[in-house]
Amino acid sequence: MHTIKDVAKKANVSIATVSRIVNNQSGYSEETKRKVLAAIKELNYQPNALARGLINKRTHTIGVLLPHFINAFGMELLHGIEEKAHEEGLSVIICSTDSFGAKTMKYLQVLNEKRVDGVIIIGPKLEEEYYDYVKRMAVPVVLLGTEKFDNRLPSVQVDNRAIAYSAVKHLIDKGHERIGMIAFHENGPSLRADGYRKALEDNDIIFNQERIVFSSGFAFEDGVHFFRKLMLQAPDITAAYIISDEMAVGAITAADRLGIKVPHDVSIISHDNLRVADMSIPKLTAVSLPLRRMGRTAAEKVFQMIQTGRPSESSIMQHEIVERDSVCMLAKAVRAKQPC
Amino acid sequence: MHTIKDVAKKANVSIATVSRIVNNQSGYSEETKRKVLAAIKELNYQPNALARGLINKRTHTIGVLLPHFINAFGMELLHGIEEKAHEEGLSVIICSTDSFGAKTMKYLQVLNEKRVDGVIIIGPKLEEEYYDYVKRMAVPVVLLGTEKFDNRLPSVQVDNRAIAYSAVKHLIDKGHERIGMIAFHENGPSLRADGYRKALEDNDIIFNQERIVFSSGFAFEDGVHFFRKLMLQAPDITAAYIISDEMAVGAITAADRLGIKVPHDVSIISHDNLRVADMSIPKLTAVSLPLRRMGRTAAEKVFQMIQTGRPSESSIMQHEIVERDSVCMLAKAVRAKQPC
DNA sequence: TTGTATGCGTTATCAC
DNA sequence: GTGATAACGCATACAA
Q1: What is the per-residue burial (b if ≥16 Cβ within 10 Å, else e) of A125-141?
Q2: Which residues of A touch B45 (CB under 8 A)?
Q3: CA at B18, C1' at D4: how many angstroms apart?
């Protein structure tokens, strides 16, 4: 591994001159430039980013904290981050924290020691401990997730209440009135459950406690379990809003076992619109979240903050409904010509 | 951000002493140790990894190159890598190269400038250009993939011929004889197609060109397209070996459209055993690859190479067949009591 | 246009 | 035990 000194020697100039040329500043003749460039090429010289970082106080590296990143959801976010980050000349170090966040503090320390230029934290909530730490790190931090989990830091999120509202409204527009929901069991109030409720209210449908069920996770298994529970609890529903694609697929499996046909007997609309949504039978109608773009946006924010030194605004990303085959019209008049 | 100097000043010692204590070497009294530790805590001092790396010539960081890492397959590998790497005190920088590997050289340069301690390359093949570069980088490199794509570098792989053999053998054991396959279209000879052929041969089943079809990808869409093609080309098959879970799910969708029931009309065995395998209807019987463990193993290898300085052996990981619902017995005698 | 010298935050080699 | 001080590889203020 050659250093700037080797180049200087080979080109018969000082290291200062080499440095100038490498960082293409001004202050040298074309002649020397050629000499130096030739030496660089010949020696295969690559500047040492460590030494550079030591001086410039910038490592062109950011850290990403994501909890149990095994799932496809986080993957999409990560992909967006990585893509944008590299476009801006930033490398990304991934830190996959376990479900309990036990490793998080350790990761934060590592990132701090490595003097990353910024941090993106993916996750449902920001522990006070983490917040304190990143604050002391004094580097740009942006939060990335589906919940507005903190307002002290800039974030990229979606409006879950609006999403739930859209989803349920979509079902209502399709003629459904007895609508169930698999929500996520949270400590505080659930924005999604709120949106669900509001959509019913606005359309003069009475809310029925029995039609909402709270899951402890977002996985396939949760879907089969809680859809079953939902159907037992509220057998008369004709549609359901399920807050993750995997769960929705699980619901279809559960329905299958229960002898319920989707969408003929009950329509299903899901949340996220990951690849699986397109792979199930029937294909899932879903609320689509721009996960990739959210990742990109988060990366863009940290980059901007790094450049300007001032905090960025939070962004709320738009969602849309992608219609596929898991939801059908209910109105009898329509049903005749357009069976589902 | 405080430096070792600040700590030294606050503790009334020299930076040398602080350094000794931080790296817990010997050569100081308990008394000074306490003082220094107190100062460190109070100032919240974190050693600068850049400065350290500059001297020690180790960054405790490795780079991972993975092509279009969007898919669940790469995710599993990555997860294994990350897990093990952090256990060994290594951070991992991800570099997601596009399908054409156009960005690869750029990434390699970045990793080189950052002086990573090692590199893991995920992918189907190693371009000569990349090989030359990593060789010049003079850091441990391990290849991670499903193909033994190069033998100049240590790798972690599986035995694709054996896998295909196992899969087809499984179908044969279940009474199938007219077995189709969706293989991957490669330039060279396909190990999987070889294994398929060998399994037939060993069981006195004649190979029929029509029953094998070559896909250009591994995705869901490829599955629906090529399964359709396969069924048109060889309508008499009773089973098929499909080389990715996503494709297998696609095949089920295609079958559905064709009015073919899986596994009643045709059994399907897939490859990889990702989460989707468990989510389709019917659930997929699949050859399971220990992707997570493969990732861990790759990380372990680079770590070892970093420590010892000598190259590591290549590893071939074991596979196993996970029986679920997409394959059924064919023998008529059996069929009577065990319909599928 | 070019070179010298200093410092970035460490570790390590000497002295004391 | 402890403390100067020289590297590590580079950028830059200052001289020339």
Answers
A1: bbeeebbebbeebebbb
A2: none
A3: 14
Q: Rounded to whole angstroms, how far apart are CA atoms B57 and A318?
A: 46
Tokens of A81: 């981050």
CA-atom Rg of chain B in angstroms = 26
Residue-level pLDDT at B335: 47
Supply B81's token pair. 């890598």
Q: Are residues B174 and B308 in the same domain?
A: no
Contacts of B253 in chain A (CB under 8 A): 279, 281
Instruction: Chain B: give the shortest CA distance to residue A203, in Å.
Output: 35
Same domain for A102 and A209, yes or no, is no
Give the distance, in angstroms, between the CA of residue A239 and the centroid of all CA atoms in the same chain.
Answer: 27
CATH number assigned to the domain comprising residue B205: 3.40.50.2300
* A96 vs B: CB within 8 A: yes
The answer to whether A47 CB is within 7 Å of strand D is yes
Q: Are residues A164 and A153 in the same domain?
A: no
Per residue in B217-273, pLDDT (tens digit) is: 999 999 999 999 999 999 999 999 999 999 999 999 999 999 999 999 999 999 999
Bases on strand C under 7 Å from any protein CB = 1-5, 7-13
- Same domain for A117 and A249, yes or no, is no
Could you read off the pLDDT of A63-82 as tens digits, one per residue? Answer: 999 987 668 889 999 999 99
For the stretch A228-281, pLDDT in tens is: 999 999 999 999 999 999 999 999 999 999 999 999 999 999 999 999 999 999
